[in-house]
Sequence to fold (66 residues):
Amino acid sequence: MNNTEFEFFIKGKLAENGLNLTKLAEMLGTSHSNVSQRLKRGSFSSLELYHIADLLGYDIEWIKRK
Fold:
């Protein structure tokens, strides 16, 4: 998944939950522009992604490829 695909994936998950980047930024205690720029660059740490998934009610699973 490239940065653009990741950005659209996260925005899609936000939309599915009736949220937007501004609300996510509030939930993370940061600014809209910070979240937007980090999303475009794909610069969230794995811990931050787990936190975002948790805030949205998702679990991240590691599944062994066949």
